[in-house]
């Protein structure tokens, strides 16, 4: 959102995009009590969780053999709240015309959301966070893929400095995570806080938790029929990243912001960030994390 950021990250054609999104939400968005809102800091596992929530909520509507996720990218099944801002054909994103429950996502920090969303008792938020080292590296590689070819790639050193200084479209990583963490501690029935790492380790457990939180608990019959495992398999990195729609089609956020769906799928591993960062970088980011999260009860591995 600053000139500094635009210079470094060049590809973001509209430098005020995040601010514009935020202002639109604050001024115009009319939440419904049944809305399901997915929030994340970019590169924390948004695409994966979109697919999982879509599959969980709609599991009685679609069979696994001809599921919409086989032919439609997760970001089109579960749009960004502000996607329609950029859409010429607004009818595609007529939020008021969306059937309930509406599935909407955003990267906006909790503390910047309008009171109409944070005060409502029935509104559901699901937040996903991820180890900052993996987020930083995933984001750096992603940004370079989106960067216009005529601009030199951003170096890891530059990306690292920006991340540590908290310069990003959605503010500092640690403030973002803490905002939703605190909301989860205060109102756990309203804000579910997930970690990418726990989703990787025990996807079936998390899928069942999601079902309960969203008011769509899995019945004993569904569990014994293997519905949970089917959802996990459908939304797995291996499955989604190999689908034609996710290999060759694009996500159109605007006429200027068009992203190849394949860029949302890289490796999908835990701890990959450490293989790019120097020991010194790892030490510094771990220190910032310990300091910022001190006393919150939220921890990440070293
Ligand atoms: P890596 O770059 O570490 O591989 P987001 O969806 O928030 O943009 O996050 C993207 C990250 O999630 C990327 O991480 C991507 O590979 C990973 N990812 C995407 N789909 C996934 C899936 N189905 N399972 C696990 N990880 C996934």
UniProtKB/TrEMBL annotation:
One annotated GO molecular function: sulfotransferase activity
Coiled-coil intervals, chain numbering: none
Keywords on record: Transferase
Record-linked Pfam families: Sulfotransfer_1 (PF00685)
Zinc as UniProt keyword: no
Tagged with keyword Hydrolase: no
Domain Sulfotransferase: 33-296
Name of the top EC class for this enzyme: transferase
EC number per UniProt: 2.8.2.-
Record family assignment: Belongs to the sulfotransferase 1 family.
Protein name per UniProt: Sulfotransferase
Organism: Gossypium gossypioides
